[in-house]
Amino acid sequence: MSAALIAYRLLxxxxxPLAPRLLDARAKQGKEDPLRVDERLGxxxxxxxxxxxxxxxxxxxxxxxxxxxxxxxxxxxxxxxRPDLTVLVTSxxxxxxxxxxTRLPAGVIHQFAPVDTPGAVTxxxxxxxxxxxxxxxxxxxxxxILESRRRGVKLVLASARITEKTTEGWRRFPGAARRxxxxxxxxxxxxEASAARLDSLGGRVDGHVNLKLxxxxxxxxxxxxxxxxxxxxxRPVVVAASTHDGEEIALVRALDKLTERLCLIIVPRHPERSxxxxxxxxxxxxxxxxxSQGTEPDRDTDLYxxxxxxxxxxFLRLADVVVMGGSFSAxxxxxxxxxxxxxxxxxxxxxxxxxxxxxxxxxxxxALSDAGGLVIVQAPWDLPAVLAPLLADDAAARTMGERGRRxxxxxxxxxxxxxxxxRPLLPGxxxxxxxxxxxx
Length: 440
Fold this sequence. Notes:
This protein has 19 helices and 13 strands. The chain has helices at 3-15, 19-28, 65-81, 94-103, 118-128, 142-150, 164-171, 174-182, 192-200, 222-232, 247-255, 274-283, 312-318, 329-332, 343-347, 362-371, 383-392, 394-411, 414-422, and strands spanning 57-62, 86-91, 109-112, 132-136, 154-160, 186-189, 237-243, 263-268, 289-290, 303-305, 321-324, 352-354, 374-376. The two termini are 14 Å apart. The model is unreliable at 433-440 (pLDDT under 50).
């Protein structure tokens, strides 16, 4: 083991006694679930199915909302193809846990991922004893990865996006980088740039998989859809999806320029910002309804603040046009976000408009734009010129949405590639010669 990894393990062991206090402080800030904080220390809140001699378990891990949602198609495939396996999904944020609580199939277990200290990792692995682990993230936690490997767990790094900054950090410890990456049986980054960076660090890349391009349209509550549709009536609907600080008030002001009356549904990326958004709207004199308070837009209310989790599928289905948030940082001089998944409206056949900051979704944005299913504007105040024709011409909006739907369908083949990569690693499935890897 490299000197850097030895030092890391010793340092995390020394700092481990501080972990409970740090986690409690984060819980007070709303960054951890106070009722489940022990899970971050590796202490499971539920029993492992089958007890000590139970069946095989597959562990899927993603850090935040985007990564964990991208795992849902993998969960569905595992449940369909290998119903004999127990599936455990871990994540690292409160928001991701809340969404997974409504989206995971019955029988699939969710836990918070352990912090990367020796004791937490040991407790977690002692309890769950996974046969295969699939990590969907760019952060590489040495204790967790190397201890899993030592215990014989098959490891897959999938849909990974590694930045140049992260790569430069690992290059300071080349031996540690090689050792950590060598622990993986398969490495499947999401793009060419990440593949090149992982290769430069000593990782053996086995192809590309971007799970965020896979999957189905988000679900919705049909009864809630009927109620909201009736409340909105015949007003056209614009949904501002996954908005960030500063975007909400800018979008409202911009859409005020439209002559046609409409219903604007604002879906903030982080619903906990609801109070500050409401305050900004109130200061500008806007009348609005709050989803979290159980109110709905009425005849005198054209603005709906949808400050709840797990209902994006509902709001997108109500939309005539979708504006993607997290994409206007340059115009608003706010910290860059990199955009959010434009495939969500595209899968529902909804025409979409986005700002220029889509760096996290550059290839997808280009594909949807080239197909005619997405329009890129430079600033919120450019939106009326694009939205007005779409809201006035249902046929044009439907045509644009259908183009996006077809482009989204063509983008979603990553799940099949990942399944072919992990299937030989599943317990009870010996790998074919073409995919077998040498023993380490």
